[in-house]
C-alpha cells in the first residue's frame, strides 16, 4: 500500500551518442538528486536504458533531463514505456544487455 502517495514508473531508452560519455553516471547523479529509485544500463545496440520510479513530477523532470543528457552526449531520441519491473531500493548501474 502506498498510503495515498502517487508514484509512477517508466522505462526509458535513450538513443544517440550516449555511451562512453558519462551518461550512466550522470543519470545516477540526477536520479538520486530527484529522489528516484531504479537503474541504468548500456545496451548492446549503443543505446542506454533506464528505469525511473518516484513521484510523477520527479519522473517527468528526469525524462526532460535525459532528453538533454550530460554535456558530451548527443541525444537523438528518447522512448518512454510503462513498466512494472522491480525498481529496487536505490538507484544503481546494471550490467549491459
TrEMBL record:
<protein>
    <recommendedName>
        <fullName>acylphosphatase</fullName>
        <ecNumber>3.6.1.7</ecNumber>
    </recommendedName>
</protein>
<dbReference type="InterPro" id="IPR036046">
    <property type="entry name" value="Acylphosphatase-like_dom_sf"/>
</dbReference>
<feature type="active site">
    <location>
        <position position="24"/>
    </location>
</feature>
<dbReference type="GO" id="GO:0003998">
    <property type="term" value="F:acylphosphatase activity"/>
</dbReference>
<feature type="domain" description="Acylphosphatase-like">
    <location>
        <begin position="9"/>
        <end position="95"/>
    </location>
</feature>
<comment type="similarity">
    <text>Belongs to the acylphosphatase family.</text>
</comment>
<dbReference type="InterPro" id="IPR020456">
    <property type="entry name" value="Acylphosphatase"/>
</dbReference>
<feature type="active site">
    <location>
        <position position="42"/>
    </location>
</feature>
<dbReference type="InterPro" id="IPR017968">
    <property type="entry name" value="Acylphosphatase_CS"/>
</dbReference>
<keyword id="KW-0378">Hydrolase</keyword>
<dbReference type="Pfam" id="PF00708">
    <property type="entry name" value="Acylphosphatase"/>
</dbReference>
<dbReference type="InterPro" id="IPR001792">
    <property type="entry name" value="Acylphosphatase-like_dom"/>
</dbReference>
<feature type="region of interest" description="Disordered">
    <location>
        <begin position="69"/>
        <end position="97"/>
    </location>
</feature>
Amino acid at each position: 500500500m502506498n498510503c495515498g502517495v502517487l508514484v509512477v514508473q517508466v522505462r526509458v531508452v535513450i538513443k544517440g551518442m550516449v555511451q562512453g560519455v558519462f551518461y550512466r553516471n550522470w543519470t545516477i547523479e540526477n536520479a538520486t538528486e530527484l529522489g528516484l529509485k531504479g537503474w541504468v544500463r548500456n545496451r548492446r545496440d549503443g543505446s542506454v536504458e533506464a528505469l525511473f520510479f518516484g513521484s510523477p513530477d520527479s519522473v517527468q523532470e528526469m525524462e526532460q533531463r535525459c532528453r538533454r543528457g550530460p554535456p558530451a552526449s548527443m541525444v537523438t531520441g528518447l522512448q518512454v514505456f510503462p513498466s512494472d519491473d522491480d525498481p529496487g531500493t536505490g538507484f544503481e548501474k546494471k550490467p549491459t544487455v
